Amino acid sequence: xxxxxxxLLLSGTIPAAQAQLPTVDIECSPVEIPxxxxxxxxxxxTTTCTLSNPNAYSEEVNITVDVEGLIYAAPExxxxxxxxxxxxEVVYRAELGDSVENIQSDINARVESWGASFPCVGCTxxxxxxxxxxxxxxxxxxxxxxxxxLLDPGKSGxxxxxxxxxxxxxxxxxxDVVNRSGLEQFGVQFSFSGSSFELNADATADVTLTVxxxxxxxxxxxxxxxxxxxxxxxxxxxxxxxxxVFRLExxxxxxxxxxxxxxPTWAVSVxxxxxxxxxxxxxxxxxKLVSNRRSLAADDFDFDDDDLDFDDDDFDDLDLDDLDLDDx
Length: 328
Known about the structure:
By secondary structure, this protein is α+β, with helices and mostly antiparallel strands. The protein has helices spanning 2-11, 180-186, 231-235, 265-300, 313-316, and strands spanning 25-29, 32-35, 44-52, 59-66, 71-73, 77-80, 85-93, 101-114, 118-119, 125-134, 140-143, 148-151, 156-165, 171-177, 188-192, 196-199, 204-213, 220-230, 241-250.
């Protein structure tokens, strides 16, 4: 019967429009095919297509795929028995880091031959359209040159660096400092010029981190860790955070402090009494020395009036009458 039908079609005795040509139905799932293109992913997506043969005879179905900007893999042909179904897969592959995009693709099925390998003259093509969806991924970036800060109490310093969006679409990158609360309790305060930045893919922004110490800060050396987090990755439930560090050294205020830690109480009391006695003794010595000096000074300059009372007879021996004033 199939042979007769085929010969009649070839001879034109039966018009092709009046003959029941072999047909095939095609459906694919999923219709939207997600493709992850983040670093480390396979960057592929797959849809499974089902061919249905409503005829009583087998069919050899030719498969073609139309798509731009992607590589795909699919069988060239699929055999479908009469009244049965057959499945095949179409795999799409993108490039890592591709931008977010929805790409349309047509998957075509046409009966190439039927029955005992009779070519299907005039068979039409059935098409099923799918969408390949390139997915967004979030990747933050930090560009920090090696830097160090040495801060005295109550002083400030700056760390300058860049934050980057290394994802494939617009994203918000947030910044923070690891163990920030602990460092602030120690006496170190942090202030970013901006704590979050909305950036396009591959864009960067300049950031200044101001570090300030309190007057009560202690001595310490720290590897301060700055973190950058992709908000998109957080929203997707798979937070992606990177970090970088800089060196910070703080110097405490220098004060003379006598420590009595570990000294028994009685020893401290005895030492205090001895110190007090020493101070009192020193005061007594100073007072006594001052008093003695004043006494000596009074003795040296205490003249009696009688000591200055000269008799006239004391000057007689000088024989002043013999002096001839004319000689001068």
